[in-house]
Design brief:
Elements: H1 6-11, E1 18-20, H2 52-72, H3 83-96, H4 100-112, E2 120-122, H5 124-146, H6 168-176, E3 185-186, E4 189-194, E5 197-203, H7 208-211, E6 219-223, E7 226-227, H8 229-238, H9 245-254, E8 264-270, E9 276-282, E10 284-285, E11 289-293, E12 296-300, E13 302-307, E14 311-316, H10 324-337, E15 342-346, E16 352-354, H11 355-362, E17 377-382, E18 390-393, E19 404-409, H12 416-426, E20 431-434, E21 444-448, E22 454-458, E23 461-464, E24 479-480, H13 485-489, H14 494-504
Parallel strand pairs: 14-15, 15-19, 19-20, 20-24
Antiparallel strand pairs: 1-16, 2-22, 3-10, 4-5, 5-6, 6-7, 6-8, 8-9, 11-12, 13-14, 17-18, 17-23, 21-22
Length: 506
Amino acid sequence: MSLPYPRVEVALVLVAILLFSPGCSSPPRGESDSKPTSEPELAVESARPMSAERAALHLASFDKVWTTIRDRHYDETLGGVDWEAVRTELRPRVVAATSDEEVRRILQDMISRLGLSHFQIIPSAAIDLMEEVEEAEDERQGFAEDSDAAPVSGESATERAGDGKASSGARESASKRKRRRGGLGRPGLDLRVLDGRAIVTRVRPGGPADRAGIRTGWSIVEIDGRNIGPVIETLLETYADQSLGSFSMRQAIRGRFTGQPGDEIAVVLEDADDARHEVEVELAPSPGKFARFGQIGEYVEFESRTIDGDIGYIRFDIFLGPSLLPDFQAEIEKYRDLPAPGVIVDIRGNPGGIGMFASALSGWFFENDGAPDSGLELGRMVTRDRGYPLIFSVNPRVDAYPGKVAVLVDGCSVSTSEIMAGGLRDLGRARVFGTRTAGAALPSVIERLPNGDAFQYAIANYISKSGEVLEGRGVEPQEVVELSREALLDGRDNVIEAAVHWIRAE
């Protein structure tokens, strides 16, 4: 899956019945490409001489992936793909491969023929990195328990107008910088590609980007001396008319903002007047809570506040961790007792997580009438044998929140986010604002391969409450609201404003 950053994109994927988005390592649906689509920095391992033993492990891995899809895919027709022909074509290429990365590309090519989300090969080094991340987090938390010292943070950087190119100093520092992608460092910002430009959509107050002087609405021009314009052009062409396009473009650019706490990233941005600002963003640890589930781990950032006087606003960036459910409950009860006329649940950019969390959270918006079975559901998973489906049942709560509910989504809302938004919409309990979601809502599992890599594959198809297949289609909001750069430059969020206007209306 792809969580907020590419270390997640490669390593932190769907496990068991988790519902995460696919990594950007897969080509767009319906395309086959033997070239790697992830960035070179994320390739994880360099080529090395292939021993006979290693070659045998790769061949066994190919056979396992091919056989697993043949026997366990939820659609026994594989969407019409001639799976025997695929094996005949690609197996000899694995035999002739000379590096681990070449084998990964072949395997990714094979599974991309299905044209579905939640199928990917996860390099072994990415999983090893997850272990390093967890160890580092353990050390960090241990330090925090014994000290009142603040976590590593960035210093404010000088911003100045430039001539459109990064200074020689910035380029020199960038060339000397040997950051490892996928570390614990975070820049404290989010972005989207709007009208062909990478626009800063959120800046965490007090975070690295904020201290560097970066503001919402600014356009990102260069990262570490590299102009990202051509990157965006390529991404726009590659993901044209693809439901995962927005998500994939965001991840590709956010991947350049990763590293270890203390690493500095040179960034050139343009403000509302197209004046250039050259800043250094020093990465810092995430302020969120670290959560682990199986081979998946990520920081969970949870935000709740009152806006426009008395309207509740809740935002969280992943459906994961033991703290999410009680944190959500506490805030909902607070807004219920206020009482708030409406609550906004912002899951824009949320890549999913534990599927049943969508059911658990949604229950707080339905009052328990004492019936033994409410019959409420967000949707259901249908497996290959068409037996008993996995139903995302909603359990109503005693003293549930009775007010209006607005759910905010966009093209970077994936999997569990789509299940929750679409289900609440179909049940008539919430109004959805924003843009169409990513259309990647398949449950999947992860299995280790003989060569040490891992294989993520979908095991069922998701059908929404209204009977729609979300895969490749996504959830269409009742109120389509495109995020506005002009509003962001003015310090506003026009999607939130639309939700507030609806809540205030009689």
